[in-house]
Structure formats: C-alpha cells, structure tokens
C-alpha cells in the first residue's frame, strides 16, 4: 500500500472551550479529487487552515507523503507542496494577474539579490522563464489575455480563477480549493468543473475541494468527506453520500441533490 | 521607610493625572481602534483654558474646573467630527496620520497664541503641606501637600463618575457594546455617531481636568507639556490593557509610582526613559497589557 | 557655499530619507514612525568613524574615506533596523507604530546621554572630507539609493515585499516568508536612512540629538504621504515639497513662523482629500483606471 499523499489523523482544534474540529481523519492518495462538504460552520475551512499551517492544531497528526508537517509555518508547508485558495478572495489587489502568479514563483526564482539589482547573470533569463511558466498556467485557465490587468479590476468569476492559477504557480502536489464556485452561476460552475479536472490532469496534482455547490461536488469528486460540528459523519463515493441519512439530516432535511441554499 | 512612602505619595498624585489622560486614550481606542495622537494636546489645552478661566475671567477654582471640562470636551467633539469621522471606513493608517497632523496643529496654535515659554498657573489655594511625622512617627519626614491630596481626590471623583456613566447609563452601555463589537452594535441600532462623539467628549473632559490639575500642581503650563504627558499616559493605557477602562487607571499608577521610585532611589535623568522602557517591554512580551486579552485573527 | 546649493543638498538627503521610509511604509505596508532613529544612527556612527576611527585616512583620501564612512554609517543603521525590527515586527499596525516611536526616542535618549559623542553638548568638528566636491557625492549617493531601491522592487524580492503589504495571509500561503521580508524591508529602509544620516553628519559638520526628534520622523512620513505612499516618484515629489515649502515661505516672516502649523494642516488635508497623495491625484485625473467588463 503506497503512502497516501495526505494522511490526517485525529486532527483536533480547540478555541477556548469550543472544539471546532474533533478527531478528523482524512486520507488522500496521489491523483485523487476529493470533496469536503458540510453545513456552514462545520469546520471545513478550519481544517484547511490547519493543513496549511495558518492555525496550529491542538492535537493530531498531519503527514504529507509520510512527512509530519505539524507545526510548520505556512510558507514552509507551501514549499512542501501544499497550495490553497481562499473562501474570500485574497488576491494581491494592486498587482497585475501575472504579478500575482510571479509571487508564487518567488521560491524558485533562482537568482541572487545582487544579480537582481544589477540585472545581470541569471536575472533576465530566470525572469523570462518565470513569466513563461506563469503565462502557461494562465493559458490553461483561459486567463492569459488578462495577464497585465490589475487583479482588483477583474470580474468576480475571473478573480476566483486567478486565485486558483496563483495557487497552481507554487507547483503544488496537493491543491486545496476553498469554495471555488461561490457566487458563480451554473454555466460558470460547469466551466469550473471542467477546469478543475483539466488542472488535475495537466499538472498531475491531487485536489481537495471544499464546496457547497452539490452539483459540482457530485460531478467531479471521486470521494467525499462530510463534516458536521467539527466531526466526520460520513465518507464515501458521491452516490453513497447522496443517500446517506446522516448527511441529509445534517443539511437540515434538505435533499443533497441540488445546489445548497 | 518614610522615603518610600514619600515616593508613593508623589506617585499617587502624578498617577492621578496620568490616569485622567490615559482614560481618554483607552476609551477612544476601545471603540475606534484609533490612537488619538492629539489627546495629549487636549490635556495641554485644558491647562491653558484653566488659566484663562481663572485669571482672565477671575472665576473661582471649582467653577473653572467644572467649565474646563465641557469646553475642552466640545472641542474634541469638533475635532472628531471634522478630522476623524470622514475617515471611519478608511485603512487604519489614515486617521493615525490625521491624528498626528491634528496634534501638530493644536500644539503650534497654542504656541503661537500663548508663546513657547511656560506660563504661570494662578494658585487658587494656599500652599499647605502636612507633615505626616506629626501623627505617625514612623513616617517622619513624609510631607503631603494639600495640592497632592486635592489632585488625587478630584481625579478619583471624576473616575468614579466615569465608572457610573459607563456602567449604569444607556449611553455607557452603548459605549461598551461598540467597543466589544462595532459592527454588531451598529446593526443593532446603536447611534454610533452620537456615542463616539460622547466618548470623545468624556475622554477630553477628563484630560482637560487633568490639564488644569497639573497646572495647579506644578504651577505652570507650557505648549509642549501634552507631548510627554500624552506619551506617558498612552504607555499607561497600553500597560493596563488598551481599550480596557480600569486598565488605564492601573497602568497610570504603576507607571507613576515606578517613575517616583526611580527618581527617588536612582537617577532622576532616567525618569522619562521609564515610560519608554515600560512601553517597549509591554509591547514585546504582552502587547494586550495587564487586563487585555490576546486577539485571534480569523482567516 | 551658496544658499541654493545648500538647499539642494538638503533636498537630496530628504529624498533619500523619503525613499527609504517608502520601502518600509509604502512598499511593505508597515507603519514605522521612528525613522529618525535610523537617520541618527547613521549620522553618529559615520561621524565617529571619520573623526575618531580613521582621521588620518580621512585626511589622506577624503573621497574614499567618505564612501567608507557612509557605508559604515548605513550598515550600522541597518543593524539597528535589525535589532529594532526583530521584536517589533511581531506586532500589528498600531502597536508597531507605537513601538517604532518608542525605539526612535530611545535611540535619541541614548545619544543624549553618551559622553563620547558629546551627549547634550553635541558632536562638533566633523570633517567635510571632500570639500567643494561634497555636493557631487551627495548627488551620487542619492542616485545610488534611488537606483538600488528601484531595482530591488523590480525583482522577485520586490514582489515578495509588495505581497506582504497586499495580503499577508495569502502571501504566506504562496510561500513567502512574511516575517523575513518584513524584517528585510525594515533593514533596507533603515540602511538608506542611515546613509542619508551619514551624509548629513558631514554636510552639517555638527550633530545634536535634537536633530533627530519624533518631529523629524513625522516630517519624513509627511513627505511620503504628500507624494503618495508606495511610489518612489511620489517619495521624491513629497521630499521636494516638504523641503522647499519652508524655503518658499521665507519671504514672509509670519508665514515662516507658522510653517509647522501649515505642515500639520497639510497632513490632515492630504489624508482627508487625497490619501494617495500627489500620485493619487495624478492617477485620478490624468489616467483614470477603467473597470474591466466580463
């Protein structure tokens, strides 16, 4: 049995008296496309925050390809190959789309400070290479024509895509998407579904997706974890989850087939 | 032993004044998360208004004290209205810069109007000192001036009044609500403009009273007195926990007594450095102060 | 030295100061108002270097000595930036501002009490070094400073610094060591402030801690606020305005005496009307940005 890419065991976090996430276990193999769903406040984003080092778990283990990443800083975890997008878009507003991606490429810039001030040596070559790599990612997401546009002036749907592009630019092994379809209409969501699958294929990465839009989740996720009040209440294939009474109840009796209100 | 008590006495008198100023800082910060750099100048203006009321208008002390407060309070309300309120939605650095600007404008205006030299403050009361040694022989040598007692008592009375307002009145409750959760309070219908104006009014009244008391205590006022006192009072507020009202008072007395002890037992030239040292120390190790709580950022 | 040449050199020194503060406050989005402290460290260390540590070298090779002491002063200021930055940069917004004010004052108080550099009597007799050529060196260092900062910001490191300003949490998640780059920006800002200070020490040949008060920090802040934070051109323009305004007012005795008042008013009005300063005005009227449609 191969080491899972992500192995989370008994992940728990307490804020004062409130246990926001309680002994959650998640295993994801390389190449999978997994969903994480649950009612609002279930602790999904909190899990993401722990996986990316923004919050420190009270207890539990987080292993990336067998390596315990517990306690590492977000930028260190990013270097290990975990990238994420944010529920509320957090683009670098006054920078262009291209510049947003170039920030993600900073780690692999490959030139020294002196070289950058004198603009000698590897500077020009590496800058061009980084630009090309960023443009490549933008092309995959149909954003290349926006490369030199200021991020804050893009329409909402495109901003969400730039978030994904920026995360991809860190060359991750695991991509965490936090409600990428929020605020999108059905046709945009359908396009997003295609984009996520394309990304998974072209970039050979593993995806963990938080989403409320059930049509998206059911369509592209191979497996789904369901969280409620910080605990895992169900896990399985979309068909199983759809009909699981505990899941239906957690969503307050509504059917899990359509989009969540 | 008597030396120590003497330093305590001096510390309590000075601390009363720091507390009156520190309360204004902490209340405004608690609600607006704004460090009102201009607050020290408000205190300074209180001193000058006091001179005006006592000398030029010849009012008796108590009348002047009661008048200084609303005069200075209204002045602060005007400042809030025109310099800070327009910036309420702006990034936090904006009102901070404006506050520095207001502080400079007030300082310079006062310097131009009243001159840069210290001005003598009229003495409404005789200079009476009590030798504690006559009653408690163990404390022989300790001298308490009547001015010190008055400053302390007046400050305490004002602070108790503030406490009553904040704890027992409707507007006080509104102030507390705003400082706990600004947006929720707004959505609940709290009249924020009025409450904020009132907060500035009260904070400034106290500082203005402090300015008058300090004039009486040290016999003089000068335009730059707000700068140093303001910084120290601010340190006191941070030490006690910025945004926490009792913290301002506790911080003020800890600071002033430390100062008195350092001056008494050590080097008087390091007196002003104490405030900075405390400030840096608090910010390094416990920025939320004695009575504050650490804040968590939600992602 | 002619009056205009004097003002011009002062202007250059202010340009470097403004550009240096712009790295910290403008590009990195921090709030530092203790900049005078780094200015002071650069000044005093450079002065000590040329007067005490290498007086013979200074006499023999004034040009090289000037370069040496300026770099030494700047480096010392950079180290001060590190010492101040490491504890302070853990703090957020307002607290950071206060801490920097505190440190700026502490530096001044230390200098006020240090006998070897004259304490409250001041530090006299700093050699001019290159004599008539001094203005040339001032211009050279100014160009060096502006150029280096410009190139720095055009590199990936520059983008990293900007990303810290734009969104710390996102930056962190994209692999940027935010703590490191905040400190880096702080040290760079301190370095160039110290460079300006070193030049100032030799320009005025006399130093006193009262040259380095909180007001000086406020003045530098005013320069970048007026010019537009986050823009090197803005920093230069702001420095020009703040340096030349008092000179322009000299024709009137009354106006001169209220110049600090005018500065205070400018600060308030700029923030109220055009917080992005002159550069903001320019972009608002000359090149309004269009919103992109879907």
Which geometry of chain A do the CA atoms define? globular
Radius of gyration of chain B: 19 Å
By DSSP (H or I, 4+ residues per run), the number of helices of chain A equals: 10
* Helix/strand/pairing category of chain A: alpha/beta
* Termini Cα gap of chain B: 55 Å
The low-confidence runs of chain A, each spanning 5 or more residues with pLDDT under 50, are none
| Alpha-beta classification of chain B | mainly alpha
- Number of separate helices of chain B: 11
In short:
The complex is a heterotrimer of chains A (261), B (299) and C (294). Chain A is α/β, with parallel strands linked by helices.
Could you characterize what this model shows?
The complex is a heterotrimer of chains A (261), B (299) and C (294). Chain A is 37% helix and 23% strand. With 261 residues, chain A is an alpha/beta fold. Chain A has 2 domains: 1-81 and 173-261, Rossmann fold, CATH 3.40.50.300; 94-171, no CATH class. Chain A is globular. In chain B, strands 1-4 form a two-stranded antiparallel sheet. In chain B, strands 2-3 form a two-stranded antiparallel ribbon. Helices cover 72% and strands 3% of the residues of chain B. Chain B has 11 helices and 4 strands, in the order H-H-H-H-E-E-E-H-H-H-H-E-H-H-H. In chain B, helix 1 (2-32) crosses helix 6 (170-180), helix 1 crosses helix 9 (225-240) and helix 3 (61-84) crosses helix 8 (192-218). The mean pLDDT of chain B is 89. Chain C is mostly helical and 294 residues long. Chain C contains 14 helices and no strands. Chain C has helices spanning 3-27, 35-53, 55-60, 62-88, 93-112, 134-153, 156-166, 168-173, 178-204, 214-227, 232-248, 253-257, 259-273, 277-285. In chain C, helix 1 (3-27) packs across helix 10 (214-227), helix 1 (3-27) packs antiparallel against helix 11 (232-248) and helix 10 runs parallel beside helix 14.
């Amino acid at each position: 049995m191969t080491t899972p890419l992500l192995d989370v065991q008994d992940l728990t976090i307490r804020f004062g008296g409130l246990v926001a996430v309680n002994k959650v276990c998640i295993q994801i193999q390389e190449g999978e496309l997994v969903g994480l769903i649950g009612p609002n406040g279930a602790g999904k984003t909190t899990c993401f925050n722990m996986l990316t080092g923004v919050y420190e778990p009270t207890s539990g283990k987080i292993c990336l390809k067998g390596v315990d990443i517990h306690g590492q800083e977000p930028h260190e975890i990013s270097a290990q190959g975990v990238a994420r997008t944010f529920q509320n878009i957090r683009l670098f507003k006054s920078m262009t789309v291209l510049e947003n991606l170039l920030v993600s490429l900073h780690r692999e810039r490959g030139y020294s400070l002196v070289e950058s001030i004198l603009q000698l040596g590897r500077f020009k070559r590496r800058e061009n290479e980084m630009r090309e790599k960023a443009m490549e990612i933008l092309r995959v997401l149909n954003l290349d024509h926006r490369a030199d546009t200021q991020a804050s002036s893009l329409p909402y749907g495109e901003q969400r895509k730039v978030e994904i592009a920026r995360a991809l630019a860190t060359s991750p092994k695991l991509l965490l998407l936090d409600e990428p379809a929020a605020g999108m209409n059905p046709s945009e969501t359908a396009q997003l579904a295609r984009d996520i699958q394309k990304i998974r294929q072209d970039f050979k990465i593993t995806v963990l997706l938080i989403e409320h839009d059930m049509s998206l989740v059911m369509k592209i996720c191979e497996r789904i974890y369901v969280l409620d009040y910080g605990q895992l209440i169900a896990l399985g294939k979309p068909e199983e989850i759809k009909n699981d009474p505990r899941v239906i109840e957690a969503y307050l009796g509504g059917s899990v087939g359509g989009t969540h209100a | 032993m008597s030396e120590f008590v003497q330093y305590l006495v001096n510390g309590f008198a000075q601390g009363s004044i720091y507390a009156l100023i520190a309360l204004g800082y902490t209340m405004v910060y608690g609600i607006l998360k704004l460090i009102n750099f201009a607050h020290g100048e408000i205190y300074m203006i209180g001193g000058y208004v006091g001179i005006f009321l006592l000398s030029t208008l010849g009012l008796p002390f108590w009348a002047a004290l009661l008048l200084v407060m609303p005069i200075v309070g209204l002045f602060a309300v005007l400042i809030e209205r025109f310099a800070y309120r327009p910036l309420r939605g702006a990034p936090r650095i904006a009102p901070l810069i404006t506050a520095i600007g207001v502080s400079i404008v007030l300082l310079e205006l006062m310097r131009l109007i009243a001159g840069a030299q210290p001005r003598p403050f009229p003495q409404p009361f005789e200079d009476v000192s009590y030798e504690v040694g006559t009653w408690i022989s163990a404390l022989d040598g300790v001298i308490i001036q009547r001015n010190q007692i008055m400053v302390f008592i007046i400050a305490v009375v004002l602070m108790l009044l503030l406490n009553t307002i904040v704890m027992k009145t409707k507007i006080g409750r509104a102030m507390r609500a705003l400082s706990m959760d600004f947006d929720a309070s707004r959505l609940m219908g709290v009249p924020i403009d009025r409450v904020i104006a009132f907060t500035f009014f009260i904070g400034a009244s106290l500082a203005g009273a402090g300015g008058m008391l300090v004039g009486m205590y040290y016999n003089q006022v000068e335009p730059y007195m707000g700068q140093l006192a303001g910084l120290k009072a601010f340190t006191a507020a941070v030490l006690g926990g910025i945004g926490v009202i009792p913290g301002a008072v506790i911080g003020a007395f800890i600071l002033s007594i430390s100062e008195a002890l350092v001056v008494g037992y050590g080097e008087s030239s390091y007196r002003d450095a104490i405030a900075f040292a405390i400030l840096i120390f608090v910010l390094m190790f416990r920025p939320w102060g004695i009575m504050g709580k650490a804040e968590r950022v939600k992602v | 030295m002619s009056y205009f040449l004097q003002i011009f050199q002062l202007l250059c020194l202010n340009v470097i100061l403004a550009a240096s503060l712009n790295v910290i406050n403008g590009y990195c989005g921090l709030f530092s108002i203790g900049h005078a402290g780094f200015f002071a460290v650069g000044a005093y260390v450079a002065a000590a270097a040329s007067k005490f540590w290498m007086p013979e070298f200074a006499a023999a090779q004034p040009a090289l000595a000037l370069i040496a002491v300026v770099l030494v002063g700047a480096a010392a200021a950079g180290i001060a930036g590190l010492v101040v930055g490491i504890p302070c940069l853990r703090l957020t917004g307002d607290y950071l501002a206060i801490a920097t004010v505190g440190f700026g004052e502490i530096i001044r108080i230390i200098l006020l009490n240090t006998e070897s550099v004259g304490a409250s009597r001041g530090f006299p007799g700093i050699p001019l070094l290159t004599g008539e050529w001094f203005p040339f060196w001032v211009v050279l260092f100014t160009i060096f400073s502006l150029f280096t900062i410009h190139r720095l910001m055009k590199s990936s490191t520059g983008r990293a610094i900007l990303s810290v300003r734009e969104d710390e949490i996102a930056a962190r998640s994209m692999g940027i060591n935010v703590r490191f780059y905040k400190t880096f920006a702080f040290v760079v800002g301190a370095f160039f402030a110290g460079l300006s200070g070193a030049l100032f020490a030799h320009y005025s040949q006399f130093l006193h801690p009262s040259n380095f008060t909180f007001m000086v920090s406020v003045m530098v802040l005013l320069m970048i606020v007026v010019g537009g934070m986050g823009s090197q051109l803005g920093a230069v323009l702001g420095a020009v305005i703040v340096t030349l305004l008092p000179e322009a007012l000299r024709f009137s005795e009354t106006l001169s005496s209220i110049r600090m008042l005018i500065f205070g008013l400018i600060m308030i009005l700029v923030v109220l009307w055009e917080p992005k300063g002159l550069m903001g005005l320019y972009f608002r009227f000359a090149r309004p940005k269009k919103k992109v449609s879907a």
